[in-house]
Structures are given as C-alpha cells and as structure tokens.
Amino acid sequence: MIASLRVGGDGVPIMGVSLNRSVRRRMTGLPGSSEATQAPAKVERFVKQLLIAYRAVILYPPASNIPAENARLALETLSSLLSDDHDVRLTIAKDGLSYHGTPVLPGRDAFTAFSRELYNHGLAEVRFHPGLTHETLVAFLGVLGREPDQIDGAEGFAAQLWEAGVDTITVTGTSKVILEGDEGDIASGPDIGSWPPSPHEIDEALPAALEGVQPELALLTRVLQAPEIVREYLSYGFSAAGPEKSPEEAARGVKVAELAHLAHRLEGDVSGEAMECLSAAVEMLPGSQRYALLAQRLLTEARMDTAAAELVGHMGIEDVCRALVSEAGTSEVSTEGLARAIRNLALAGLASRDEVLEVSGTIMSEAGLAQETVESVLEAAAPRKLVVKDEARVRVSGERGSESVLRLIDLAVGTPAGSVDDPEREALVEEVERGIGDAEVMGALVTLVTSEVSAEQLSETMMLLEEGLALLVGSGEYRVAADAAEALLSAAAEGDEEKRLLLADAAKTLAGRDQMEAITRAMGSHPKGGPEHEACARLLSTLGDLTIGPLLEVLADEPEMAVRKSIVETISQIAGDHIMELAARLGDPRWYFVRNIVTILGSTRRPEAVSAMSRTVRHPDARVRRETIRALAGIHDRRATEMLAACLEDTDAGNVQLAARYLGNLRARAALPALHLVALGEGKGNREPGPRAEAIEALGAIGSEESVPVLKTVMRKGIWRGPKRSKLLRNAATAALESIQASKEEKDS
Questions:
Q1: Which of 61, 314, 617, 623 is most open to solvent, judged by the fewest CB atoms within 10 Å of its CB?
Q2: What are the b/e assignments for 87-104, b being 16+ CB within 10 Å?
Q3: What CA–CA distance (Å, rounded) separates 529 from 8?
Q4: 445-463: average pLDDT
C-alpha cells in the first residue's frame, strides 16, 4: 500500500480552504509566528478559565457549586504560574489585557469585552497572590459582577474586596473610568422559560434557532454564554449514542458543528463570546470525548467549513494539539489517527503546515512520546517523499524516472483485469478516497495515462485516476490539480478518439460542483498573487468552458456575500463565450441569483447581452431591475440606451433616478423625450420629486436646446407646488438651463 504526499520544491506549504480571515488573526502561541509577541500559554489558559468562572458566577445562583468548580480549574493553572513568581499581574486596558507588557489573547472579542468590564469598574491592574482559594476567587468575581455605579457608591472596588474578605487579590484603580455604551448583562434577554434548560430542551430548540426562530434563538444565544451548560449538552450527545458505541463513533452524532454555525451567525461581540464559550465547553469534556470530537468532527470539517474552522481557531493550535496528544497512545492505530488529525489541522489553514508540525512535535515530545514515534507521526501527517510500505512487493528508488513511475503504477493496477479484489489495489483506492495525500500517486497516474499504454492498462488506470482527481482540490493540492488538468487536456487534443474522450472525461472530474465550490472559497481566502490563488486561477483557466455550469450552481447556493462576489468575478472572466447559457438562468425564482447573473452579463460589455437583459428590465424585484440598469449603462449600444430610457417608467423611485443619471452621463440625446416626461411629472412610472430632479439634471448634462421649453414649464409649475418640492425642482431647472446656455455659448465661440 502506498501513502504519499508531494511537497513542492518551491516550499509552498499545503493549506486548506475556506478560512475566515478573522480566525487567522486570533491564532495565538505559535512558535515562529510573525505575529506580535504574546503572553505564555499558561497565562492564556488561566485567563480563559477565569472568564469561564466569571460567567458562571453571574449566571448561576450562589447556592450552585458550578462557580466554585470553575474557580478551582482556574486555580490549577494559577498555581503553576505562582510557583515561578511571587504574584501574577494582569494589566488592564480598554481594548485588552496584558501580562508583563505582552498581550493576552488579543483580537478575541470575548476577552476584549472581559478586559473592558474590568476597565469599566475602574481597574488598571489586578494581582493574584499565593494562598488564593477558590472561595476567594469567587468572591472577587462576585464583586466584579456588580454594577460600576454600585461599587463607586461604596468607596470603590478595593473597599468592596476588603469587605468581602478578599486579601489575596489586590487591585490598582485608574484615575478616571470611562463607560462606553451599554454592554448589557450576559444573562439578560427575553423570558425564555426555566433556567438552565435540559440537554433535551436544547436539542429540540437547536433546529429552530438555526432558522432564526424566536424564542429558540434567544434561548440558544444565552446557552452559548454558559460553558458548563454547553459541556453538559455535548456530553449528552455522546451518551445518546448508547454504551455500545465508541467515543469515535458517538462523536459523529454530537451537534457541535451545528452549535458552531449558530455562534458564527450571531452578530458582533456576541458571536465571539459564543465561540469562546463553545471552545471552552469542548476543552472541558473528558479526554476521550474531546479527542473524538476533534479528530472525527471538527478537524475534518474545518477544512471546508468556516464555522468549524473558526471554532478550532478559538481553541488555538497549542491547545488542540495538546488535546490530541494527551489521548493518543503508541499503537499503530492511535498514531495513525493522530497523524491524520494533525494533517487535517494543517489543511484547515489556521496556520502554515510547518507551524502546525513544529507545535505538534514539541507537544508530543513534552508528553513523553519517543522520538521515533514523534518522527513517525509527523512523517505520516506530512510525508516528504514517496513511501512504499510493502517493500517485498516492489521497491521504488528515490529518483523517480519513467521506470519507477511504471513500478508505482504496477503496484496499483498491475494485476489482471479479473483480479479486482486484490488487497493492494483496494488499499490504494481506499487511501485515495480518504484523501490522505495522494498528490504524488495522482501525478504518476496522469503520467501513465498520457503515455503510450495498452488498452487494458489504460482502462484500469483511468478508474483509479477519476476516483482520485476529484479529491486533489479538496486536499488543497491546487497546483497538482492544475498540472493534471493541463496534461490531460493537452493529451486529449491528439491521439485516437476513444482515448481522447477518456482523458477529457477525466479532466471533467476536476470541474465538478464540489471542486468549484472549494476553488472559489480558496481564492477568497488566499491573497491574490499568492501561490495558492495563482494555482486556482490556472486550474480554472485550463478547464475553461467546463467550469461555467458548476460555477453557476455554486453561485446559486452560496449563502455568503463575500464568496458570491468572488464567484461572480471568476465567472465574469469567461462569461463572454457563454451569454446564451447565462441568459437561460434568468428565469430562476431566486432574485439574488438572477441579480448576480445580470452583473455577470453586464461585465461582458457585449451587445449580445442586451437581448438577454430585456427579460430583467421588467423583473418583479426592484433590486434585479436596478442591477439591470447598471449593466445596461456599461454597454455602449443603441439598444442598451433605448432600454435605459424604458427604465424611466419603473415604479421604483431609486431605479428611475439611476436610469436618468446614467442617461445624463451618456449624453443620450435619443432619451430626451422620455426624460422630458419625467421632468414634467408626466407619463408612466415613479414621478416623485427625486426622480424628476435627477431627470432635470440629466437634461442639463445632455445640453440640448430642445429641453429649454420643458425646463421653463417646470419652473412655472413649481410656483404652485409646496415650498420644499418647488425649491428642489426650480433649483434643478435653473441649474440645467444655465448648463444648456453655457454649452450653447461654448459651441458658438
């Protein structure tokens, strides 16, 4: 069986797709990172648990033991810090916490809000001293939970701590407290029934909350501020699978991805706090459950799912690696699973592959794994050369010439056609389907099918090739996919017809809907000019006409505006040769999809697109008609101008104004009769003052003397209108007349 991964000579790290840029900015604690220096990982873990304990103090009644349990967890990390220093000091600013001058979890909304809470209570510094107990910590957080006005009226925060018997936490106040806005109480909100809800109640409310239905959304929003409740719900998901299921099997039914999607859809600071809560809940799970949830769900889905990637990003590379390593044994199965999880973490794009491998290796060594095991796991996670596990069957030299490529293929497809159950072949197919790094194998298969091979070998090889090609894009192997497409389509242009058809069909597998979705998301997440973006663009250019249909399907279903914009730009590059296919989609019932098609048609600047847009000039949705006006204005064609003039009869005031403005910019004399009607407030369509004033300005821009009588009529009629309306129209008419006169004088001179 072969496991392989090509690492390019250019050193470009293999990255995943679909990454929210804000997640990248939140990554902390990465060795060798180019980001600003940040606080030690122990300090970050302490602050994370401190925030969890603070929320527990606010959300739960004094009799509950949950705040005390969370305070004990915070003290475990604090004790380790105090063993190295006589106290732990956190400096407080309005925009974040710092430790010895280095930021603590910067750019993460939940911790920025926590720092602001401390700041609004008049604190500039908090010092934690040896001897601190969980009861004292709970008392401190209880004082923090009071309103700032109450504390100010009781002689300040320090006095309140003294009265509460807190002497192992000292604070320094600011000279002035600045309160900004109404942050709100995290437990506030509408009446949403008994608290806390049971896991079963959460499970029933989740589907409706994802649809935005109240009060389920309010309930789940509040739940996503209570890590202990979320932890109980995740544990409930494991137990619901039954005792006969292993944690890995049970993890597939735990609705952590759904919670991540809900947190991702919330707005502003609430979304960040919800993600922090969910990440904290995952970290609070028992080790086997946490490992299963990361390895089987989150890291696999983070490669293609923005919400899952954001959740993993909130947990941080170090904490994720630590959670994985803590549960992985030294058996072949465990180390293989650990290697796959680390590879998925690298492909999620939260950091470069090298950073992930460096952090993983360090943590495995710290956990006591043998160096041989560490190297084996890292090599399996990101192999740098072809690895042939069954050396008794075939040996492949380090330098891969044509002979070694053929030997490689012999291992995969060298058996007779009837021996389809050969275990070596099945193992390779399974590995390809799992997408564990078959870039090198795919390259070898492409090399073979584009060479002179027997019909039998071609048929067998094509079967494997088509199964693996579609997975290249999903694995982030954009350059290999582009190379394969170029080789296949180039070879398909010559040779016998049967082989040409086979090669062309193989290339089409790279242009499937899933592949186009992955490509467009990758192009949106990677910077233009970068190697990943360039490889994706080359793949699309090579596939050409094969991509238009799948790209339109992706565009129709894409929920994120930024990604839709990227897809529109991509399709626009090839739209000129597909106007008829684009026009056929204008009858789609989704207005936003039709609007995007109109944008693409307009980008062609071709007169042929005008006929297609004759259908959308009268579209029932005003937003589609508005986009049609913009598209027509960019096509310099007589019929496009006529259709723009027809848009002056639109019932939407904004559309009439926009059409009039464009006609004025185009100096469209043919549109004068229609503009005259609008200026006079006559004819069909919207004739409110705004559209009329825009039409009058357009007449001034065109500068025709034919418009003078019309403008004078507007000025006379204005005397009998209301003062505001009269002033608007008369001023516009006066300016238009002056413009026409200036134009006449310029011509005469």
A1: 61
A2: ebebbbeeebbbbeeebb
A3: 18
A4: 65
